[in-house]
Amino acid sequence: MNKYTKWYNQITDRARNRTMEGYTERHHIKPRSLSGTDDVDNLVELTAREHFICHWLLVKMTTGEDHYKMLNALRMMRAEKPGQQRYETAITSRVYESIKQEYAQLQSVLRSGKGNGFYGKTHTEEARQAIREKNTGKKLTEEQIARQVAAQTGRKRAPFSEEWRAKMAVKKKGKNNPRFGVELSEETRRKIGNKIRGRKQTPEEKARRAEANRGRAKPKMLCPHCQQLIAVNTYPRWHGDNCRQQK
């Protein structure tokens, strides 16, 4: 028996042999998610603080999938509903971060692959059509747009790793590329040209792009035909196999 189990038993045993007045919360000594029952012998009345501490101890007492279940139960201890008076003492930021990180990691492992409830399933054509009809013409309200903008403002995506870039390069190469073998019709080309022709960037857009690119080292490639160092983003269009000076 480790110290957490000992402390847990001390709290629950003390609760069995007392009569409390005022606000209490009912606690399953063996949680229902761990096959506990609603029998009287498995129930005790605790204060909100004792209830919170017991769930915290259960997290430290368990391992594997049981540990994940107890983490989720502890996470939900901060939720409230009418009639409840949750333990109000703030969890320290470090403890809260630790709980959330561990829960997120376990959630990712347990809900990936075959653990995902939608694993191996696909929407029927009727379901696809229902979803399509529900979202067709749907527009976000001004409040929803403002909330999304506020959520994204100031956020920066972590740079992609070289391993990720290499995997994506292989995954999207050749016939795996969704645009493989697709040729644009003259009408589509004309529409694209008309849309772009004459378009001018606003001063704000120019400033934003300049700021984003300032100080960034742009990789270059040497064209074997004209012997010029060309930025990799424009190299395929005017150089290499398309270079006018190739023999």
What's this, in brief?
The chain is mainly α and 247 residues long.
Into which percentage range does the β-strand content fall?
5-15%
Q: State the strand order across the main sheet.
A: 1-2
> What is the CA-atom radius of gyration, in angstroms?
30 Å
Shape category: elongated
Q: What is the number of helical segments per DSSP (H or I, 4+ residues)?
A: 10
Largest sheet: 2 strands, antiparallel
What is the first-to-last residue Cα distance? 82 Å
Q: How would you describe what is shown here?
A:
The radius of gyration is 30 Å and the shape is elongated. The longest helix has 18 residues, at 93-110. It has a two-stranded antiparallel sheet. The protein is mostly helical and 247 residues long. It is built from ten helices and four strands; from the N terminus they run H-E-E-H-H-H-H-H-H-H-H-E-E-H. It starts with a helix and ends in a 9-residue tail after the last helix. The mean pLDDT is 83. Among the domains are: 3-112, no CATH class; 218-247, no CATH class. A hairpin with a 6-residue loop joins strand 3 and strand 4 (229-231). It is 47% helix and 6% strand. Helix 1 runs antiparallel to helix 2, helix 2 (48-61) runs antiparallel to helix 3 and helix 3 (64-75) crosses helix 4.
